[in-house]
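Ticket reopened. Same input as before:
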Amino acid sequence: MKELSLNILDIVQNSVKAGATRIEICLEETDERFSFWVRDNGCGMSEELLSRVKDPFATTRTTRNVGLGIPLLTLAAEQTGGGVSIESSTGEDHGTLIRADFNKRHIDFTPLGDIVSTVTTVIQGNPDTDVIFSHSAGEGRVELSTPELREVLDGVSLSEPEVLAWIEENLRGQYDQMRMF
Ligand SMILES: Nc1ncnc2c1ncn2[C@@H]1O[C@H](COP(=O)(O)OP(=O)(O)OP(=O)(O)O)[C@@H](O)[C@H]1O
Ligand SMILES: [Mg+2]
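Engineering reply: fixed in the latest deploy. New output:
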């Protein structure tokens, strides 16, 4: 994938598929490292699934085929000298936390790309899901929380075009501010 934001979108879609009602997306970067984590309260993964997801090419013919979202992210991270770790639980406190870490200075580091579109797309497709997004880089910080927005919106859906346009503009404005640091 050419943009990391597309890998992130893929990981968030996994949370959606897992039935999450709350998804946190947190990006953190320094001059040298870029890392992000996605935490959801979806159904979680069994230990058996978790081990297959991490190592998809080791599956035997009798096991169900798994997709490529996590393997592609792992490849993208590992080729910069970083990596991916996953914690998941199917118990009472079910959910998944996936964390990816990249070396920004490595020649194979993929730029983040259009994360604002990624976040807006996720909200558009899942207006009733709580999405908590933040991105911190040095002194700068961008954040957006749909539970907070919903309080202000007083019943108006987050999928309304005007609301989505406002969200996108708000995020782009925050990024413009962030770049001034
Ligand atoms: N957040 C999550 N919660 C619960 N299960 C998950 C989560 N993320 C991944 N999984 C499980 O791991 C499997 C593999 O995920 P992965 O993203 O690698 O592929 P996929 O979603 O099956 O297919 P693709 O991403 O290629 O469309 C998923 O099918 C799902 O069963
Ligand atoms: Mg996937």
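Residues 140 and 181 are 6 Å apart (CA to CA). The longest helix spans residues 161-178. Please confirm and we'll close it.
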